[in-house]
Specification:
The chain has a single domain, classed as Luciferase-like domain (TIM Barrel), CATH 3.20.20. It is globular, with a radius of gyration of 18 Å. Helix 7 runs parallel beside helix 11. It has 288 residues and is of the alpha/beta class. The strands form two sheets. Strands 1, 2, 3, 4, 5, 6, 9, 10 and 11 form a nine-stranded parallel sheet that branches. It has a two-stranded parallel ribbon with strand order 7-8. InterPro entries: F420-G6PD/mer, Lucif-like_OxRdatse_MSMEG_4141, Luciferase-like_dom, Luciferase-like_sf. Keywords: Oxidoreductase. This is TIGR03620 family F420-dependent LLM class oxidoreductase.
């Protein structure tokens, strides 16, 4: 897998199959090594399959399918279908999500790691370990990633977390952190975009507990977040600063970085193709 990939939620992809195929081919042509389908994609894996069908070498992964909203047997069958058609090009990323999601499904968010392990060893037992990954933030979940899967998909974590995750995982498992970027140099615009995208995460203890472990404090995470938090969570600035911020994860031990591009509206409402082109240029993907 190449060093750089893209992360974007499933919900911003077009519904027209031809438009999906055209966008997928451009992502591959730009030189990104992988595309990570975020935003709790459906367990039919239809979007991942469409992206794979339109490309020849691009790796595709889910980041992540939520175990609280997915049928394990259907997910396993979807993986088997994709594995047969596109061997070696797909990672099934799953995760234990968050309490609000579980509760919205009438389920108590208790022992989420146990639930995740049971999902991996039960419905997903026929998915080869080398083809599945998990969302992992804390030490116990990272150790589970090393034990039962190909590796870990941390989200919203700084390079210091990447370094600690690599220590826990050891040398073998894949480590693919997500990193948000904003391609602009105006501090006010960049921070507004960051706040629009990040505010939702400040309501989720899974993230806030870890962010406090890595240098933030309660005041940084209150309301829409402090400038200090936004600047730590979103890499913005000129091309050199953006590349340095992304590469900090590689320097800390990541194998690959899943880059999520923000726009002035925060999380984009449609595929940010122009921004992806700019990102490919500043990362020199034709040389990477």
């Amino acid at each position: 897998m190449r060093r750089y990939g893209l992360w974007a939620p499933a919900g911003i992809w077009p519904t027209d199959p031809d438009a999906v195929a055209e966008a997928a081919r451009e992502i591959e042509h730009l030189g990104f090594g992988a595309f990570w389908v975020g935003g709790s994609p459906a367990d039919d894996l239809a979007l991942a399959e469409a992206i794979l069908a339109a490309t020849s070498s691009l790796t595709v992964g889910t980041s992540i399918v939520d175990i609280w909203t997915s049928d394990g047997d259907r997910l396993a069958a979807s993986h088997a279908r994709i594995r047969q058609a596109y061997p070696g090009r797909f990672y099934l990323g799953v995760g234990s999500g968050h309490a609000p999601t579980a509760e919205s499904r009438g389920q108590a968010y208790t022992r989420p790691l146990t639930r995740l392990r049971d999902f991996l060893t039960g419905p997903l037992s026929d998915v080869p370990a080398k083809e599945r990954m998990i969302a992992a933030l804390g030490p116990k979940t990272l150790r589970t990633a090393a034990e039962l899967t190909a590796g870990a998909l941390p989200y919203l974590m700084p390079p210091a977390h990447t370094a600690e995750a690599r220590r826990i995982l050891g040398d073998g498992p894949l480590l693919v952190p997500e990193q948000k970027v904003f391609l602009g140099t105006d501090p006010a615009v960049a921070r507004t975009a960051g706040r629009r995208a990040l505010r939702i995460y400040l309501q989720l203890p899974n993230y806030t507990r870890q962010l406090i472990r890595y240098g933030q404090d309660d005041s940084d995470l209150a309301g829409a977040g402090s400038d200090r938090f936004i600047d730590a969570a979103v890499v913005w600035g000129d091309d050199d600063r953006v590349r340095t911020g992304i590469d900090a994860h590689l320097d800390a031990g990541a194998d690959h970085v899943a880059v999520q591009v923000l726009t002035e509206e925060g999380s984009p409402r449609r595929l940010p193709l122009a921004e992806w082109r700019r990102l490919a240029a500043l990362l020199d993907l034709d040389q990477a």
